[in-house]
Each structure stands twice: as structure tokens, then as C-alpha cells.
Amino acid sequence: xxxxxxxxxxxxxxxxxxxxxxxxxxxxxxxxxxxxxxxxxxxxxxxxxxxxxxxxxxxxxxxxxxxxxxxxxxxxxxxxxxxxxxxxxxxxxxxxxxxxxxxxxxxxxx
Amino acid sequence: xxxxxxxxxxxxxxxxxxxxxxxxxxxxxxxxxxxxxxxxxxxxxxxxxxxxxxxxxxxxxxxxxxxxxxxxxxxxxxxxxxxxxxxxxxxxxxxxxxxxxxxxxxxxxxxxxx
Lengths: 110, 114
Fold this sequence. Notes:
The complex is a heterodimer. Chain A is mainly beta.
């Protein structure tokens, strides 16, 4: 079973920041938080991952709470091409199998 | 394009027929994964290889399913005696030593069993 909880859907206006929450209250000390997204009819795409510090790359920022029980993925300036299903996954470092939940369907509108 | 290719992209078959899918991972990626995705659900893990060794199989992988990676490069997934419940998107992903935190997914093979 997936160890994360995400809202099923969210909307965001183009150009605004999209903040996607994830709850992972049973995360263990050596488990990472990974985010992937899946654009319609494509395979999932890695976005970012983190352990306990906030992380940023060219795609997004990941904010992990101090108790590590939740996190937020931030797309700073959402575009229409960011419309996708976003999956939050917890896994040990160098994960083998990924356990996907049902994710959050983000709809970016003009 | 992630560099992972899958063939065919679409397959329509009749119940009871055998089908085989192929996945070509990114060159020199030592790990290769197979997932299955049904409509409205996230991908579900089926099996994975490290080089040519199959290290784990999900209980979803019934006896009708078999996967191989004979030379540690491409992989095949065969489904024998297909059933309508096998209709799904079959995704392949590869993972390398240098990119060990990231799995690179192919575009998938969509199987429809009539």
C-alpha cells in the first residue's frame, strides 16, 4: 500500500505557483520523499527528491516539514505543460520498486 | 524522450492469445523495471532486474507472466493466455549507477485484450 496521502485534484492559474501537498506521517528516518509526474499518455517523469532538507532544482522545489510527516512540491511558475498527475512516493535511498498511489491531478488553466 | 524505448506502443489481441513486449533501456543502465498501469490508477510494480538477474517479482505477476533480460540489456515481458483483465499500460523503466535516485520511464505499451 502507498504510504502517502495526496489530494485527488488541484487547479492552478498559469504563471502562479502550484503548491502540491503530501502527507507521509509514517515515514521512517532513512526514507526519502520522491516526486514524479505523469503527463497524459506518457511514462512518469522524475522531478525531485529529498530526505530532510529543502531541495530545489530546475523543475521544482521540495519543502519537507521538520517532523518529516509532510511535504510540499512547489512549481514556482506553472505553465499549461505542467498539467499532469503528480505522485509523492516515500522510499529508501536508491529505491528499487516505486510504490505509486493515485497522485494529485494538477490542472493548470490559462 | 527519456532514452527508454518500448515496442510496440499499442497492441490489440484476442483473449487467449500470447503477447510479448520489448523494452530497450538507456545504455549501461544496470536496473530495469516493469510496471503495469490501469485507468485512473498509479503504476504498479511487477518485477525488476539488476543486469540479467531478476531480483524481485510482485504477486501481481501470475504464472502467465514471464520476464527476461538475457544479456543484461533489453528485456521482454510475455503474457500467455491473455485475459481481459490484462488490459493495461505496461511501463518499463531503467536506472543507472550514476543516476541511482531516478528511474527513467519509457512511453509504455498499451495492451487491449478483446
